[in-house]
Amino acid sequence: MQHAVGVPQPPQGRPGPGGPPPAAGPHDAVETTGHLKLPVGGPVTLPSPPPARMPHGAPPPTVAVLLIGPAGAGKTTVARHWADTRRAPTAHISLDDVREWVRAGFADPQAGWTDHSEAQYRLARRTCGFAARNFLANGISCILDDAVFPDRPVVGLGGWKRHVGPGLLPVVLLPGLESVLARNAARTGNRRLADEEVARIHGRMAGWYGSGLPIIDNSRHDVPATVRMLDEVVGRSLASPPAW
């Protein structure tokens, strides 16, 4: 058979436009990561409340917790220990860690809060939210930590609710100012803030009192004791979710 000059022909063994698709070969690429693909914007529903009497040795339900608090409250340490010691698969998703994935071009808020640093915070929150949804869809609980302010509900809780879903359980970790200042003084690098900034943030966080969200004052508690309190709060929140 002759072909018209100048008309490109399909490669040997490949169908032309409109032809049937080629059969998959044994070496064709296959999705092997085992992750579940999530619908765009798919919300995470509220887990079913645990029964009044859990069977002995039964794993806790899959949950997503947002641990809120000022710099120096111990959010990251408590969140990591909570995830380490649960009897069910649990991930810790640190907003600061994800934000610092940006290396060249990192917008450090300590150099001045700008539109650029704000945009990187928003990007980190969206990234954390997607990661949380993916973990939950695969049966892995997660805890996120962030300094969410009560006077910015749309950016704070509203943003996390959009990114993760209505099943997110927010808990406030709010020790006294002296404890926060002492813990902040022990920090290094760009996560250590000036005392004046720490006091200002702590004052804004006081707005969570009266919000209806559970608040843990860990001023006089070590990390294991705080984690036990967090477990109790999460259990109560599952049985009777706070309105937010």
UniProtKB/TrEMBL annotation:
InterPro entries recorded: P-loop_NTPase
What the entry lists under Pfam families is as follows: AAA_33
Where does the record place the region Disordered? 1-56
From what superkingdom does this record's organism come?
Bacteria
Which intervals carry biased composition (Pro residues)? Answer: 8-24, 46-56
Protein's recorded name: Pro-rich N-terminal domain-containing protein
